[in-house]
Design brief:
It is a single chain. The chain is mainly α. The protein is about 80% helix and about 0% strand. It contains ten helices and no strands. α3 packs antiparallel against α4, α3 packs parallel to α5 and α4 packs antiparallel against α5. It is elongated, with a radius of gyration of 17 Å. The protein starts with a helix and ends with a helix. The relative contact order is 0.12.
């Protein structure tokens, strides 16, 4: 078990190196949203996000999506989910990312699917998190965010204790191969 703990600690350290990606994601989300904003609420929320006023983003976008078609406000759901995630309201973020993943396409869909996997892990729904992690790895194998998801996967496996040691070692080897 000591070896598995070291492997997990190493993976978390590796995932920590990608913290800057959150900041980059926010900048890209705000930029793409501001450029494509077709609603006043979305433009306003983008401005609030730039100044990291996540609770205000939540207030603005929660009102904006109310009584509107989910497909019509999919981008708002992505930004709303991110705002909830940033203030650690993971249960509230979950349905937002689900809706965004359902209706968005391209890079936004990929981001929603990634955040959904992270959110499921954060709320402790490990079975669904594992499903989403596996799906993401299969669909987007070359995406840099797979590394963080592999760390979450190792943490999920480690909850099973000694019985998962072989799987953890195999996963660690896969991470090592990806780094080479």
């Amino acid at each position: 078990r000591g070896g598995a703990t070291l492997i997990i600690a190493w993976c978390l350290e590796l995932a920590g190196m990608h913290i800057f990606r959150r900041t980059c994601f926010l900048a890209c989300l705000v930029a793409s949203t501001a450029g494509a904003a077709d609603s006043e609420a979305l433009s306003r929320a983008a401005g609030l996000f730039k100044s990291r006023q996540c609770n205000d983003v939540i207030r603005v976008l929660a009102a904006a999506v109310k009584d509107r078609s989910e497909s019509e406000v999919a981008r708002e759901y992505l930004m709303l989910g991110e705002a909830y995630y940033m203030v650690r309201q993971y249960e509230a973020a979950r349905p937002c990312f689900l809706q965004a993943a359902r209706f968005l396409e391209g890079a936004d869909k990929k981001t929603a699917e990634y955040r959904l996997a992270c959110t499921l892990y954060r709320v402790g729904d490990f079975a669904k998190a594992q499903e989403r992690i596996s799906d993401f790895k299969q669909k987007y194998a070359s995406d840099d965010r797979v590394g963080k998801l592999l760390a979450y996967e190792m943490l999920i496996l480690s909850r099973r204790g000694k019985e998962a040691e072989k799987e953890i070692v195999a996963l660690h080897q896969r991470i090592q191969q990806n780094l080479a």
